[in-house]
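User: quick one, sequence for these tokens?
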């Protein structure tokens, strides 16, 4: 039987649980909350927190044995006894002095009524677990997770800025080339009349078109601004999932845009991938 699923216990089951080797403290209190029975784990925890093991003959009420903060536990015990139903009390903080130093510990308790053969409540059985270390590890994990999220966000900003800087450099470089070579090409077109010469000038113009803004070249194919933005991400090697995250749209929308782009670029029915086309045919885009 899982103790966390039991609504109540019998006097016989109390004996069995106290004698069993379980990793949590098992303590039985009578109706007046006097410490009556406990297991070895309870004794080990008492020693860990520099508290003596009580004597059965002393009949010590539990609320006199614990720090003042344990009043919540006492209320929960009364509720379990009087309402005849189990009560769970998570992460109760207790403050104590150890070697002159204030120490905080955290405890999770499960309290259930104990019934005799006639069904009368004769006490409360408590399962008490020290969760101090577990909570400490959870807090450390939360701090690490937050640091990782902050670093990830900072890295994303740096990558975006780097991409923007690279794009700006390419565009500035292309603009400069356009400004310096465009007049020369116009002059060449006017003096080159032969077929081979005109073919050479046309090839030069196509090469020069490589440095035009990608937005302008893709727009000539009838791509919308959104499709242009998505096509540039495809060309840079972003996956559909990464594009969806970057543009805050669903993967289905990304796939739909990709199909429209392929159709407008004349790739429908072809085996060539959109990424390969955009990268290898860049001079014509």
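Assistant:
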């Amino acid at each position: 039987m899982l103790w966390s699923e039991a609504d109540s216990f019998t006097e016989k089951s109390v004996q069995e649980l106290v004698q069993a080797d379980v990793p949590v403290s098992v303590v039985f209190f009578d109706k007046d909350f006097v410490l009556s029975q406990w297991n070895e784990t309870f004794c080990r925890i008492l020693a860990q927190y520099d508290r003596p093991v009580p004597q059965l003959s002393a009949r010590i009420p539990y609320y006199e044995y614990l720090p003042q903060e344990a009043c919540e536990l006492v209320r929960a015990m009364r509720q379990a006894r009087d309402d005849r139903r189990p009560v769970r009390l998570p992460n109760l903080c207790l403050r104590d002095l150890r070697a002159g130093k204030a120490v905080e510990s955290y405890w999770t308790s499960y309290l259930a009524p104990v019934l005799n053969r006639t069904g009368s409540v004769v006490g409360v059985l408590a399962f008490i677990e020290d969760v101090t270390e577990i909570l400490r590890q959870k807090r450390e994990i939360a701090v690490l997770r937050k640091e990782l999220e902050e670093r990830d966000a900072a890295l994303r900003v740096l990558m975006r800025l780097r991409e923007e800087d690279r794009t700006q450099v390419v565009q500035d470089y292309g603009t400069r080339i356009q400004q310096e070579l465009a007049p020369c090409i116009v002059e060449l077109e006017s003096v080159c009349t032969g077929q081979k010469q005109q073919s050479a000038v046309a090839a030069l113009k196509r090469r020069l078109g490589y440095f035009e803004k990608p937005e302008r070249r893709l727009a000539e194919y009838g791509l919308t601004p959104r499709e242009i933005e998505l096509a540039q991400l495809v060309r840079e090697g972003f996956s559909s999932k990464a594009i969806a995250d970057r543009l805050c749209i669903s993967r289905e929308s990304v796939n739909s845009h990709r199909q429209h782009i392929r159709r407008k670029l004349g790739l429908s029915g072809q085996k060539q991938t959109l990424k390969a086309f955009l990268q290898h045919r860049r001079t014509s885009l």
